[in-house]
Structure formats: C-alpha cells, structure tokens
C-alpha cells in the first residue's frame, strides 16, 4: 500500500504543478484537473483505509480522512465566498477543495501562513521591473501581461503553498 500512496503523491505533485502552469498561462484551471485531483485523493484515501489496522481511526480522526474532507469542504466554501465577492476566479475557488483534501485539517494553519507569505512576496515581485536582458523571454512577457492586467493567477500561489505544506513533515524528519 505504501508504494501506491507514494505513486499517488508523485502524480499529485505533477497535477498541482500543471494546475499552477495553466493558471499562470491562461488564468484558468480546468474542471477536469480539479476532478482528477479529487479522484486521486479518493484513491489515496482508499489505499490508506485498506492498509490501516484501525479503520475507524483512519476514517474519523482529525488527522484521518474525516479531517481531510472537513478541511477540503471548509476551504471550498471559503473559495466560493471569495469568488462570490469577485476576489477569486472560479478555478481558484474550485482548486481549494483538492488542496484542502490533501493538506488535511492539521495542514490548514501552515498553508494559510505560507499562502500569506507567498502572496505578499508575489505582490512585491510584481512591482519590480523586469531586467532588460530577459524582457523578451516568454515568461517575463507573461509577467508583464499579468502586471498590466492587474489580475493575479492565485492558483500559482495556492499550489506552491500547498506543496510546501505537504513537504513540511518530510523536512521535519
């Protein structure tokens, strides 16, 4: 079961990076990508449950599947509220669900702190001028488009905060 969870986590990182890239390039996060992430969580939850000796604890503990689902739903409701206030796009609001599922209840505080720090850093970086020797590169041209439109692809910030939150237990060891 451990190999399956490791494989799912590898796919998770790739899908999150793809979500960040598509949001950066197009300001859109496809529904199919969000559904793929939710499906990936369901597969991981099934693998964890099948490999667990105490199914009740795996299901109902705050660090188990119940806590993950609670975090996902709470973050999704927050995303919908921000979308209703026109502070977020619909894709960003939808992306909160799988992020909440994967970081879980105990990862919400580190995620919020990382999201705040990365958001501030992004706003500061967007104020810096692009160096002339690299201004013609596609990446920096896109940064200029983002700066000119004043629309920030929040999905990029959310994904990197989520990946850092998921990496925290690994770093602590």
TrEMBL record:
Note whether Iron-sulfur occurs among the keywords. no
Which key words tag this protein in UniProt? Membrane, Transmembrane, Transmembrane helix
Write down the superkingdom of origin. Answer: Bacteria
Q: Which residues cross the membrane?
A: 29-50, 57-85, 105-130, 151-171
**Annotated GO MF terms:** aspartic-type endopeptidase activity
What name does this protein carry?
A: Prepilin peptidase CpaA
The answer to whether keyword Membrane applies is yes
Among Pfam families, the record links this protein to: Peptidase_A24
Natural source organism: Rhizobium aethiopicum
CC terms in the record's Gene Ontology section:
membrane
Give every Prepilin type IV endopeptidase peptidase domain span: 11-123
């Amino acid at each position: 079961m451990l190999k399956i969870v490791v494989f799912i986590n590898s796919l998770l990182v790739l899908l999150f990076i793809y979500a960040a890239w598509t949001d950066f390039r197009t300001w859109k996060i496809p529904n199919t990508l969000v559904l793929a992430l939710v499906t990936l969580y369901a597969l991981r939850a099934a693998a964890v449950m099948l490999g667990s000796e105490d199914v009740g604890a795996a299901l109902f503990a705050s660090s188990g599947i119940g806590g993950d689902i609670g975090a996902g739903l709470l973050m999704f409701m927050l995303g919908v509220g921000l979308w209703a206030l026109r502070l977020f796009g619909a894709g960003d609001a939808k992306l909160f669900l799988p992020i909440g599922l994967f970081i879980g209840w105990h990862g919400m505080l580190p995620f919020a702190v990382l999201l705040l720090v990365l958001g501030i850093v992004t706003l500061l970086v967007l104020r810096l001028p692009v160096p002339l020797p690299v201004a013609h590169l596609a990446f920096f041209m896109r940064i200029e488009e983002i700066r000119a439109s004043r629309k920030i692809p929040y999905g990029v910030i959310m994904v990197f905060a989520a990946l850092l939150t998921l990496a925290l237990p690994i770093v602590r060891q």
